[in-house]
Amino acid sequence: MKALVYTQPNEMQVLDRPYPSLDKDEVVLKIESVGICGSDMHAYHGHDPRRKPGLVLGHEFAGIVEEVSSPLFSKGQRVTGNPLITCGRCEYCLQGRNNLCANRTMVGMTRPGAFAEYMSIPASSLIAIPEGLSLDAAALTEPAATAVHAINLSMRALQRPIQECRVLVLGGGAIGMLSALLLKHYGVSEITVAEVNPLRRKAIESHVGCKTFNPINENISENTFEFVMDCVGAAVTRNSALSAIKPGGVIMHVGLQEWASEIDMRKLTLAEITLLGTYTYSTVDLQATVNLLAQNAFGNLSWVEKRSLEDGPQAFSDLHAGKTAAAKVLLKPF
To answer: Which of 1, 186, 253, 315 could tie 117 with a disulfide, CB 3.0–4.6 Å?
Structure first.
């Protein structure tokens, strides 16, 4: 079968790979649509030691059950799923927080991913797609669930309803774009997105209908926003978030671009800032996100770009160079 393989830093190649084996309680999926994630780009740049050359990346998928060794699904069903393979037994899984599973593995990291014609995965990780939801839209479940989980977690910490908040989103990639769209769906009227790519700023203004600015050329207003989402996770965006947040506000840290940095702990303490971290989503979040996508909560998704799997190497190159306005590129193996 054809697969898009990470061969060395800044290089992806379409190669032949063996058809996946069907293990007990697993399924083989025919992949219909798969998104390029920021973490895939991180691996592509050689910055993720967990993802080594020779790996088939890709974990934002939707497809059709081709073979099944489980009573949970049948051949021909349309599904998306949780790329985190969780144990179901640890304290976090038992709490319903399986995103923190102590024994988790992951599609596109510890096992071959979805940048291929076919992929195997435990049946327990899959979620059925309602008839009215397209497979391309369903492939956005994973990144959209990250936004759902982060915003829902933040709302528990905010002192006032989120609809009353002025919100700053740092980064207009897929998570930033989907977060802004979800905030709008939740009734937030004052949303500002900071994004350096002018093509993405234009797309955000068009599809979200909110304010944008280039943080390289424009200073972020200090002590202005009740809620800030850092969807980049770099040293500069962490500092920007702490500068922009009002006393008593909430910062949600989502992005993982850089591993560590100094932050203004004095302001964090004296201004009683709540700083939250979030990791992916639970399976409950994924199911809720499928329902939100089916309700068009994220709009018409016309900002998403679709390409063939064979065009994958060029898609990675274009994303690296900032040549596409799309916050999300979907690859189509068939």
So the answer is: 1
Of the listed ranges 87-91, 220-224, 257-261, the least confidently predicted one is: 257-261
Per-residue buried b or exposed e for 273-310, using 16+ beta carbons within 10 Å of the residue's own CB: bbbeebebbbbebbbbbbebbbeebbbebebbbebebe
Could you tell me which of 208, 262, 255 has the C-alpha nearest to residue 234? 255
Q: Which of 141, 124, 121, 126 is nearest to 88 (CA)?
A: 124
pTM of the predicted model as reported, rounded to 2 decimal places: 0.95
Dig out the tokens for 279 from the structure: 């990791």
How many Cβ atoms are within 10 Å of 206's Cβ, its own excluded?
11
The pLDDT tens digits for 295-329 are: 999 999 999 999 999 999 999 999 999 998 899 99
For 161-171, the pLDDT digits (tens) are 999 999 999 99
Residues in the chain, how many?
334
Contact yes or no for 72/81 (Cβ under 8 A): no
Rounded to 10 deg, the angle between the 174-185 and 198-207 helix axes is 20
Q: Compute the radius of gyration of the chain from its Cα atoms.
A: 19
Q: Which two tokens stand for residue 312?
A: 């994958």
**CB half-sphere exposure, 111, CA atoms < 13 A:** 14
Express each pLDDT in 170-218 by its tens digit: 999 999 999 999 999 999 999 999 999 999 999 999 999 999 999 999 9
CA 318, 54, 59 angle in degrees (round to 5)? 60
Give CA–CA dist 226/233, Å, rounded: 19
The closest of 23, 39, 24, 178 to 113, measured between CA atoms, is: 39
70: β partners: none
C-alpha–C-alpha distance, residues 26 and 292, integer Å? 27
pLDDT score, position 329: 97
